[in-house]
Amino acid sequence: MCVSLSAALVNAEKTNRPDPSPGFSKLTVSEAEKAIAGNLCRCTGYRSIADACKSFAADVDMEDLGLNSFWRNGESKEVKIKRLPFYDRNREICAFPEFLKKEIRSSMVLDSKRFFWHNPVSLIELQSLLDSLETKDGSLVKLVAGNTGMGYYKEIECNDRYIDLRYIPEISSIKTDLTGIEIGATVTISKTIEALKKENKAEFHSNGEMMFKKIAGHMEKIASGFIRNTASIGGNLVMAQRKHFPSDIATILLAVDSLVDIMSGTRHEKIMLEEFLERSPMDSKTVLLNVRIPTWESIRNISSDTNSILLFETYRAAPRPLGNALPYLNAAFMAEVSSCRTSGGIIVYNCQLAFGAYGTKHAIRARKVEEFLAGKTLSVAVLYEAIKLVRATVIPNDGTSSPVYRSSLAVGFLFHFFSPLVDNNGETSNGLLDGHMNDLLVDVSKLDQNTLQLDHDKIPTFLSSAKQVLELSTEYYPVGEPITKAGAAIQASGEAVYVGDIPSPANCLHGAFIYSTKPLARVRGIKFQPKPYPDGVVAVITSEDIPKGGENTGSKTIFGTEPLFAEELTECAGQRLALVVADTQKRADMAIKFSVVDYDLENLERPILSVEEAVRRSSLFEVPPSLFPKQVGDLSKGMAEADQKILSAEIKLGSQYYFYMETQTALAVPDEDNCMVVYSSSQVPEWTQVVIARCLGIPEHNVRVITRRVGGGFGGKAIKAMPVAAACALAAHKLRRPVRMYLDRKTDMIMAGGRHPMKITYSVGFKSNGKITALQLEILINAGCFVDISPIIPHNVLSALKKYDWGALFFDIKVCKTNHSSKSAMRAPGEAQGSFIAEAVIEHVAAALSMEVDSVRRINLHTYSSLNFFYEGIADQPLDYTLPSIWNKLVTSSSLLHRTKMVVEFNRNNKWRKRGISQIPIVHEVTLRPTPGKVSILHDGSIVVEVGGIELGQGLWTKVKQMTAFALSSIQYDRVGDLLDKVRVIQSDTLSLIQGGFTSGSTTSESSCEAVRLCCNILVERLGPLRERLKEQMGSVAWEMLIDQAHLQSVNLSASSLFVPDLNSMKYLNYGAAVSEVEVNLLTGGTTVLQTDIIYDCGQSLNPAVDLGQIEGAFVQGLGFFMLEEYLTDSNGLVVAEGTWTYKIPTLDTIPKNFNVEVLNTGRHQKRVLSSKASGEPPLLLAASVHCATRAAIKEARKQLVSWSGQDGSTTNATIFELEVPATMPVVKGLCGLESVERYLEWIIGTK
């Protein structure tokens, strides 16, 4: 992100814009946000990053920056500007450091005896080179320019020869003339965009200029800026032709009759792009030289009306508008139309319709549709027939995901293109073209907004504004201050050292896992093809290599263990079979691609791949009675009191992948005396140490696990990190050499397990006023093949689900053992599902009663009495129950009532966009855990702190530093701020600080703070007498003097503690609420989150800035779960979502456009650590508000669809439906109507 922003700043300075005010750049807010589009950092929520980038912009609104919430009220703009770090535009641009260039060169040197890199500087030289290579048998040759295709098509092995085409002038330039633009094949997409957007009225008429700008605008939605800066236009087209890449560029250029120039040997051909795409895949000796985009005049139909105008538009429907996502379908349409002098209608003289990326080999022209429309006068009937032809033409190949959805997109895009030329009564729109006859190109989306409310630019793609409201407290200064996160500067600069950044020791080896692709099979053996061992492979480690006395243990919890490697039988697809150890990570990763596993399926039962099958075969994990939740109330009585009932309704919830930025990684280094030092990216180093010791059969004191920081965890670096560390340690132990491993994203996704999928069946009884009297649930939890932490999930599900007063709550929960990968804790494990189930039940009851959902929610909110009944012993005092006041406050602060009316009005006036708004509450139970701490004061007065908690990016170290400074402040009189600067929190070391436990459950920060406070209290007590003596002698005592004297007098300046929470206060409840408003595009199923307002009770925040980041980040991660992230598997249970191409987490363009958060500071929780409350996980549950708002919008769309079908009376079927999680575009479109366009046109024709 830093590099992307830096490039944007440099490019902005090249413009002719006026000089900005001192401290700002020429950058605009829009450019700042676009610069980081496509970058991934879900856990931050993006809003804070966007603010930091926008703070450079000359046109930034200072009041819109979240930084404002930490500044004083009433400060002038000038004062606020001075608080920002000064940006010097005139400073020399920082170049890439020379020492890093050398480092990169040294790691990428090709073996000159085996591989060759050629840099031809002319086409003649290129021809000669290609001719000479024909005589070399078996040489693998690759032509390269940007080589960004490597990110999509992973190459298993190196080619023998690489030919870099970038230095050939004939194919690296851009030429323009009156007939069009010719772009060299190696020109980057970014340079192509610049050329197409360039004002060039001398060369082109306005029609050509506008068409080129629209093509450029579409290209800006492809990939991300840093990819477009490298990727070539020719490389994209060659991937589309040779490998059937779902290219946007091929589609949009196909619609405008583009041509390509190709060279094969001495033969040059200039052919139409359509023919190029349809040919057999190019070989490595054939070269694409350039592509020519013609102007309209050069391809215009000579027989057409001289007063005709050109309509041109491009389309794409993708999971993210701009955030680097392949489309479900793309399209580009060009049509020449004119008013008919006799009928007054609009004639289509000719049109060119291109569709692509929908599951065929390449983009196509819809020739039958073009022929049908040519010469026709537009009417509803004509448009209806054209749409039927489109649906029959755009048919995805077998195996393509969401095929019917993709066909419906084609229909919707064609409807959007032509429908503005047809009025609401089904007649052609007389006068639509009046005033445009002199404009040779008209933007179709602006022709008639009353007819079709669907404009690409109607909703801003990025953030428009955000507001953060905080209450700061100085009671425990510096605790409560929004100080900068510890380590923020070195993280932003890339200097922070993670496990993968530790330099490899001498003779270091690298590992990669071979995993099973079968869910249940005997493993006969593993071999490699075509060689016994691929190049660089040193060993293959299996369970047979575990030393005598060791155990085949890869991970453990209090519930059981999971083997490091499968032995005779593999129990799930993705289970570890062996570890390949090679001299480099790349060779290890490549080796597993050549591995062949010999499976035996004879005489084995069928694998269990569903929770229903697990129940039928009694394949269940036991839940300890102490963990199983208790039933609440009398179900029979509650059901008897109900006026109405819903029986046996179903909900299905899928999984979610962690998507931490740093995948699983470890480094194991053998030490003297049979010891092992392991650097692990782990949330639980203590248990990692135990697992390694058991695996190697050595005492735990021989194993030292060190964790400095973790690059994102969310629960995935707890149990799932252990086998990575254990495998490295086993290999290092056997080979007596250091071994490290960094899982590639595909392997990490296959092995991660993720969030627990569930099937829920419920029956609910309720009164006619919406008050629920009883809820009965059957919940089947897919735990996978090993127990992991799954027995805690039933408790967590029910805890979050109890946020409403159900009257009586009865449940039957089964934890199912299946042949899927074992599921593990993921941020708000069980609670995310439980809170959603509650909302789904409420929504269903409201729909059955035809009531407003928010009314049903309100009537079922807990009173303090019912809260105490459902959360027995946890509810604290009545004043601690802040949810009712939060609920009412949010109604006012979000203008909910007014906006609800506006949503109703919007939906009344818009056919193809519908809005929904929803408010939901959360009640989230958390538990404090025992946590150790150690504080030591060194000679110079600096302070070193160790805690059991791990810094995952959640700001734990920051809060610990603040607590240390506060707790030690009572022994000195100087400013506490000086003491804060003296504190350093250091890495976790299992031989230095024991009993570290888990960093999870949102409470480790406060537990670590309390552990540190106990240590500091000991030190204060030890230093107190000395301070008093020095004070009597000297009057005042400086901190450094006090500590120096303490060392001289042998005062023990190191203190350790173990914070053990009181049983009566170790659990407590967190409260919050959110209002979200969305807009759904009925033609694509795309959902835009217009606004989210959150109020969350943080108690008395230990650091409001950190907690604000946690709230926003958790919400956006929840947004991914409920709306975007599909963690799919095949029929064997093997994960098929293998990386960023197929798994879409939220990006900057998918978060709420207005994102408002208030951190409620309620400082009366005396049983809490300095009255603070957790913030890491509970806000994730609030993202269900977006899902509920989407449901409300879909409900309006379905009502409209029923009205078009001519069905009078009840719309119950329209309002009662299940909206899947995640509510992706195909899911939403399916519920809004895959044939909604046809139904609308039939309705128009029928009423005409």
Radius of gyration: 32 Å
Major sheet: size, sense and barrel closure?
8 strands, mixed
Query: What percentage of amino acids are in beta strands?
Result: 15-25%
Mean pLDDT: 90
Instruction: Tell me the span between the first and last alpha carbons.
Output: 55 Å
Helix content: 25-40%
What is the number of E strands? 40
Structural class by sheet pairing and helices: alpha+beta
Q: In terms of per-residue confidence, which ranges show pLDDT below 50 for 5 or more consecutive residues?
A: 424-457
> Order of strands in the sheet with the most strands?
17-21-15-28-25-26-27-36
Characterize the overall form.
globular
Number of helices: 38
Enzyme class: oxidoreductase
Protein name: indole-3-acetaldehyde oxidase
GO molecular function: FAD binding; indole-3-acetaldehyde oxidase activity; iron ion binding
Domain FAD-binding PCMH-type: 110-298
Write up this protein.
- The protein is globular.
- The longest helix has 31 residues, at 1004-1034.
- Helices cover 32% and strands 21% of the residues.
- The protein is built from 38 helices and 40 strands.
- The chain starts with a helix and ends with a helix.
- An 8-stranded mixed sheet has the order 17-21-15-28-25-26-27-36, with helices on both faces.
- With 1248 residues, it is an alpha+beta fold.
- β25 and β26 (675-680) form a beta hairpin.
